[in-house]
UniProtKB/TrEMBL annotation:
Domain of life of the organism encoding this protein: Eukaryota
Subcellular location: Late endosome membrane; Lysosome membrane
Transmembrane annotation, as ranges: 80-102, 155-173, 185-202, 231-250, 271-294, 336-357, 388-405, 425-445, 457-477
Entry keywords, A to Z: Ion transport, Iron, Iron transport, Lysosome, Membrane, Transmembrane, Transmembrane helix, Transport
GO cellular component: late endosome membrane; lysosomal membrane; plasma membrane
The keyword Signal is assigned to this record: no
Protein name: Natural resistance-associated macrophage protein 2-like
């Protein structure tokens, strides 16, 4: 009678020991999963790599390159710290854009479409479209200038503009084969820019101590109004309104389970790391351009450049009048002076870098245009129809400029387009801070108190700097007509009012119209085309 009892006891002990072992295994597995979510993974970073680099191209467009070279020629190395600060501010703003897309599954234009009344929404859309058109015109003109330099003037500006239409078909062709192929192509273009402008940097060999001093010492000795305006222009060129809309849409390309808080948090982490790497690379490329012109052409006069170009037999020596005024350069003249001082190779490699910058930024501009249009207007057109429309909107005014304007006198137009984009900046920054601060929209990922206060002050400073740039430009034109401000005043007030409520000033919410139900996130959400 005792043997069976002994057997049962042994079996029970055996089962207990097995269950204990399995429990420890499961517990170790859970601990391992927790550790994996906390640790860094290069494989996961690679999976999320792409949107940040596409976004960073806006920091390398021809408008930024022109701002860089003018900064070096006018202020030497003294404004590199402004470029660094503007890039960091841009990274923080891009973080908000990426979080909005990851958490809600909607990009900024779609959120604006759902939450703003009809009239302010249409005005907001028009303002953003103006910014996109202005940016696209700079990019297309940059491509045309590069083609003109590469062909030694044989391809006129208007013909270069027509040639850039080809990038639309390249865009459609690559997009047909998947987003990763398109991202790889953009990575290739960024590499070309890095090699081209890096060659110029090595060829000119700027003083490394001066580069580091200009980058990390926030001081500008001996600077006057010209350098101040250039510093403001750097901030305006780096922080672009349509890029906020673009980045919030690009992050939707990855499949994320938004019901899983851990997955959303992980996506936010890796997107921020990727954006940091991408903007660091773009910052280095911008530094290359600033340092080249700071070392070689800061303090140079037109007479010195003209004599050098005559000695080397350059066909462009007539660009620089025989006087002792300080040298003024743009993308076109910048390439010419590089050729005069450092040989034809420097000119052609410069033109290749500008062409890569223009081609890549026109394609991302096309992306921005179609996302903004489909988001604000809720359009469901074919990809070809959307791309054709958004490209046409920018190509036609650019073609008119190219026909009636000479390639040697485009600096004024670039300044005007920078002012145009500066005026549209509040129409991107105020909505992104507003919506990322709403708990009803972002749930646990809404901006905390530090981000609300810090982000609000940051956006206020950026907008104030850009408005100063606008005032300086308008004053220089001796113009007192500021009807643009009156047209958009109502929309700005509405945006500011909603932003203040989202930041916690609840007494302004008389009708309770700014709190959105969480169910809005469960509505039908458009798919990301890939």
């Amino acid at each position: 009678m005792t043997a069976p009892i002994h057997c049962r006891a042994s079996i029970s002990e055996h089962i207990y020991s097995k269950c204990s072992f399995l429990g420890e295994v499961f517990k170790e597995g859970e601990d391992r999963n927790v550790m994996n979510s906390l640790l860094f993974s290069f494989r996961k970073l690679w999976a999320f790599t792409g949107p940040g680099f596409l976004m960073s191209i806006a920091y390398l467009d021809p408008g930024n390159i022109e701002s860089d070279l003018q900064s070096g020629a006018r202020a030497g190395f003294k404004l590199l710290w402004v470029l660094l600060g503007a890039t960091i501010i841009g990274l923080l703003l891009q973080r908000l854009a990426a979080r909005l897309g990851v958490v809600t599954g909607m990009h900024l234009a779609e959120v604006c479409n759902r939450h703003y009344p009809t009239v302010p929404r249409i005005i907001l859309w028009l303002m953003v479209e103006l910014a996109i058109i202005g940016s696209d015109m700079q990019e297309v003109i940059g491509c045309a200038i590069a083609l003109n330099l590469l062909s030694v003037g044989r391809i006129p500006l208007w013909a270069g503009v027509l040639i850039t239409i080809i990038d639309t078909f390249v865009f459609l062709f690559l997009d047909k084969y998947g987003l990763r192929k398109l991202e790889a192509f953009f990575g290739f273009l960024i590499t070309i820019m890095a090699l081209s402008f890096g060659y110029e940097y090595v060829r000119v060999a700027p003083d490394q101590a001066e580069v580091l001093k200009g980058m990390f010492v926030p001081y500008c000795s001996g600077c006057g109004p010209t350098q101040l305006e250039q510093a403001v222009g750097i901030v305006g060129a780096v922080i672009m309104p349509h890029n906020i809309y673009l980045h919030s849409a690009l992050v939707k390309s990855r499949d994320i389970n938004r019901a899983n808080k851990k997955e959303v948090k992980e996506a936010n982490k890796y997107y921020f790391i990727e954006s940091s790497i991408a903007l660091f690379i773009s910052f280095l490329i911008n530094v290359f351009v600033v340092a080249v012109f700071a070392e070689a052409f800061y303090g140079k006069t037109n007479m010195e450049v003209s004599l050098q170009c005559n000695e080397t037999g350059s066909a462009h020596s007539e660009l620089f009048p025989a006087n002792n005024e300080t040298l003024e350069v743009d993308i076109y003249k910048g390439g010419v002076v590089l050729g005069c001082f450092f040989g034809p190779a420097a000119l052609y490699i410069w033109a290749i870098g500008i062409l890569a910058a223009g081609q890549s930024s026109t394609m991302t501009g096309t992306y921005s245009g179609q996302f903004v249009m489909e988001g604000f207007l809720n359009l469901r057109w074919s990809r070809f129809a959307r791309v054709l429309l958004t490209r046409s909107i920018a190509i036609f005014p650019t073609l008119l400029v190219a026909v009636f304007q000479d390639v040697q006198h485009l600096t004024g137009m670039n300044d005007f387009l920078n002012v145009l984009q500066s005026m549209q900046l509040p129409f991107a920054l105020i909505p992104i801070l507003t919506f990322t601060s709403l708990t009803s929209l972002m749930n646990d990922f809404a901006n905390g108190l530090v981000w609300k206060i810090g982000g609000g002050l940051l956006i206020l400073v950026v907008c104030a700097i850009n408005m100063y740039f606008v005032v300086v430009y308008v004053t220089a034109l001796n113009s007192t007509v500021l009807r643009e401000r009156e047209r958009v005043c109502v929309c700005v007030r509405l945006n500011v009012w909603r932003c203040l409520i989202a930041l916690g000033v609840s007494r302004l919410d008389f009708r309770g119209s700014v709190q959105y139900p969480p169910s809005v996130l469960m509505d039908e959400q458009p798919e990301f085309d890939s």
